[in-house]
Amino acid sequence: MISVDSEIIIVDNNSSDKSVSITKEIMHDCKIIENKTNIGFAAASNIGAENASGELLLFLNPDVKLDSDAIAELISAYETEKTVGAISARMRFEDNSFQATCRQFPGLSNLLFSRGSVISRLTGVQKTYTLPDYERNSEVPAVAGTALMIRKNLFMEIGKFDQRFFLYMEDTDLCLRLTTSGMKNYFCPKSGGVHFWAEGSDPGWIKREWHHHLSMTKYFFKNSNSLLIKAVIPVLLVINFFLLLILKPFMKKRNN
User: Fold this and answer.
1) Which end of the chain has the least Cβ crowding within 10 Å, N or C?
2) Strands (DSSP E) along the chain, which ranges?
């Protein structure tokens, strides 16, 4: 077991509940940064990283409960693998079933089976986009920012999270830049935790879906050189968004 010397930095995006005051009462050794407005996940995470003094950064969603040895296992894996860029822990749902957090880079061929796709949610088919569980440390194209570790100097050198992504896709975009620079992203199954899906914020499902579709559009406009892709993707995403508005009440609640 690795002894972890760490600091905790909480970046609050102008929350309207009593979470900041409660945190101050029970966590005296953490640094709390209070933003005056909700600047989004990417921008808030960048602020946390800039204020961190450690060699390694662990970005952690507020709706995640890590296992007791999760951070130590991530550090061990990070120091074991070569040319590692970002590494992610294995997430579970509340019933301890596997929650997919690793994925292929999105493209026109797999967009219809992405997490926000109507077809995917109706059929449960996501094999062309999200990746399955692994028994050992495995190289993957992209990992989710749910519980993501990266060296601070690498994070800064690569350009941090792109703040044009208010919510969603900032992690995939980061992994793409890491891969392009010659680094490898990994999934670490020994490091685990429970992700209470979408409970870290309460913007409503319509707003969440809107941000997901908007960020996906921004991702393709940023990273695709194909004019055809840039013309087709927005149309597909608009159609999918409005289909979700109609069909959401009849679809399964769980996402993966």
Assistant:
1) N
2) 9-12, 31-34, 56-60, 64-66, 84-92, 98-99, 102-103, 138-140, 142-143, 147-151, 184-195
Q: What is the domain-level CATH number for residue 105?
A: 3.90.550.10
CA 76 to chain centroid, in Å, comes to 21
Six-digit token pair at 192? 């685990």
C-alpha Rg value of the chain to the nearest Å = 18
Q: pLDDT tens digits, residue range 15-67?
A: 988 889 999 999 888 999 999 999 999 999 999 999 999 999 999 999 999 99
Q: Is there a domain that residue 60 lies in? A: yes
pTM, two decimal places: 0.90
What φ, ψ does residue 163 adopt, rounded to 5°? -75, 0
Is 133 inside any structural domain? Answer: yes
CA distance 139 to 158: 19
Residue indicated by tokens 């407005």: 37
Would residue 198 count as lying in a domain? Answer: yes
What distance in Å separates the CA atoms of residue 120 and residue 125, rounded to the nearest whole number?
A: 5
Range of the domain at 40: 9-250
